[in-house]
Design brief:
By secondary structure, the chain is α/β, with parallel strands linked by helices. The chain contains 8 helices and 7 strands, in the order E-H-E-H-E-H-E-H-E-H-E-H-H-H-E. It has 2 domains: about 200 residues, NAD(P)-binding Rossmann-like Domain (Rossmann fold), CATH 3.40.50; about 35 residues, no CATH class.
Amino acid sequence: MDVTDRVVLITGASSGVGAALAQKLGAMGAAVVVNYSRSAEAATQVVAQVEAAGGRAVAIQADVSEQADCERLVTATVAEYGRLDVLVNNAGTTTFVPHDQLDALSEEIWLRTLRVNLIGAFMMSREAAPHIEAAGGGEIIMTSSIASITANGSSIAYCASKAGMNSLTRTLAKTLGKKKIRVNAVLPGLIDGDWAFNTWGGGDAEQYEGLKKMFSDQTPLGHVVTPEDVADTILSLITGSDYVTGQLVTLDSGFTL
């Protein structure tokens, strides 16, 4: 797909992967919707960066765990740009709970994790699909995680939510294919950035550098992926062959080999 003048809606785009993707798409001539839940200032900055690169962008607040917000977000996108070609389900959340602390994994944590990571991705896809079909077909991309295919992750709930997203990717790909909508997922490993620094690294630079070295030393390519790496992989699915669908693309420098 040539993204020039195409409309791309990215959930969770105020920072990290979403922000990097928005900037790259804007520079390629796409019109971008920068969705955010709470970080209005950061989302506004992303919009400014997209516009500085010559693209068009607008920031729209919505919590993808809420059906009404999903409806409003898609409606606002179409009202702003007149169409929708690509949806990137990038919004995600997690709560760190050691896997052996089963009693600490409360119902509240389970429900919030599933509603944002899995149910939200479904509701957004359901709302977007008719508009993508009306535009002549397009793409839905999920930002999943290698936690979905390993026994490691920030919590059991997080791993399960991303595994569910993988299944959602494949079932939607089969369901929506006749409407010329392709559905794929990217499964990153540790992503180098502020989120990993503040959560996995505890905000301690020395601790974080040690974590990155431990991870990179276990990869054949000796590299910890960045938000830009993930954005490039998502872009490759959007701009590549129109006959790739239902695929789960692992992006971890070979960590899971």
